[in-house]
Structure formats: C-alpha cells, structure tokens
Amino acid sequence: MTKRERISDFVRSFDEAPPSEMRIPDYYGVFFQLWNAQRYYEAHDVLEQLWLAEKDLKLARFYQALIQAAGAFVHLQKNFEYPLHAKHGRRLRPAGRLFALALRNLEHLPNEFRALDLERFRQTLARYHDELTESHFERNPWSPRTAPQLSLSAGK
Hints:
3% strand; Hyaluronidase domain-like; mainly alpha; single chain
C-alpha cells in the first residue's frame, strides 16, 4: 500500500457517509479537523496529498503554506512535550523558519481564500513567529490549552 493509499483510507475514516457510497475523500476538510485536534503531523500529511497533485500555482502555494504552518506547530508541540530532549529541545528555530515561509507563501493571496480567513490566519502565524524571535527562540509560545483553532466559512 502506498503512502497516498494509506492517507486516503485515513481521510475516509473521517467521512460520515455510509461506506457503500463512493465519495472523493475531503483532504482539505480533514486537514482542519486534524489541526483543531492538535494532530499537526497528520494534518501535514493529509494536505500534502493535495499539494503534490495541484497544478494551479496559487492553490499549490496556499496548500504549501498550510503544510508549513502545520509543520511549525509540530515543532512547537514536540518542544512543549519534551523540552529537555536532545532533538525536541532544539525545535524552536525550525518552527520560526516554517512560520516565516508560510507567511511568505500567503503574502499575495486575498484575505479570504478557499473559505479560510487568511487575514486572521496570517495574524496568528505572525504572532507565534514574533513571540519566538522576540524570546530569541528561548520560549515556546504554544500550549495545548491555547492552541489556535481554524474554521472554514460556510461557502467552502
């Protein structure tokens, strides 16, 4: 079984439709479910399937930015859980770099794109990036209690 097949099965497990119905997996919707459950690594993997297949450069950059943001939160989460671990204790700088890359990929997109409030999302990413850099990558601004939640507007 390929990685894409494994992830397709994983995404289908989030679908509420009866298994007898043939439906296209909603990778985009599942990304947000996983993000809000603080399962950033899985969210990254799910959206990567859309990004790798996307031909539209604007949409591909958008997906890439979401993947980079999820990756940044993987770093923050691992650092929070294991701050003294040899590897996880050094994850704040890579998180900062991924926040900067995500913000750069979102620069030329409108304030709402694919039903996501990008203005608010950019502000969230910038806040985490700024908190990391202002602390000289010594303080992790993430915690499970205050983790950002994402939602889509009704007209996805």
